[in-house]
Amino acid sequence: MSEERPARPSDIARAALEAARAASAARPAPTRRRVAGPRRSWTGAGPGADDPQPLGRLVESLVTEQDWSERTRVGSVFGRWSAIVGADIAEHCRPETLTEGELLVVAESTAWATQLRLLAPSILGKLRAQVGGDVVTRLRVVGPTAPSWKKGPRSVRGRGPRDTYG
């Protein structure tokens, strides 16, 4: 019988190292994990398209993409009325409708309606400068209307509400 030599510590270490190398070689190569979402490209010192943006810039790009520019200009006539015509004028009138370039403005009295008709060229100039020239082309000013006695879709011509009293 052959005598076995006692294992030395260096032999044990070599055997463990060889076993670890064999196990590592048998394992598949690790793959790089990819984070979900678009691949980020570095833009340098300036902000990129996927960096946080100011809200105004995002709204402008959305309006341009969706082609809402005409609607926003029409809305700005009504929303910024007092800033466009001035607080004094806006206190006595309000824009009612905007159809086919004609802005209907309702004044609080007939005197203000007359004054606004005289100021119509300067108001149109302010609207062209602030909103754009093709949004409002004509200005129609009306005074307050009297209350209507008509109730419902049909009415009878005659003397009005006095007819029922004799």
Automatic annotation (TrEMBL):
<dbReference type="InterPro" id="IPR007922">
    <property type="entry name" value="DciA-like"/>
</dbReference>
<feature type="compositionally biased region" description="Low complexity">
    <location>
        <begin position="13"/>
        <end position="29"/>
    </location>
</feature>
<feature type="region of interest" description="Disordered">
    <location>
        <begin position="1"/>
        <end position="55"/>
    </location>
</feature>
<protein>
    <submittedName>
        <fullName>DUF721 domain-containing protein</fullName>
    </submittedName>
</protein>
<feature type="region of interest" description="Disordered">
    <location>
        <begin position="146"/>
        <end position="166"/>
    </location>
</feature>
<dbReference type="Pfam" id="PF05258">
    <property type="entry name" value="DciA"/>
</dbReference>
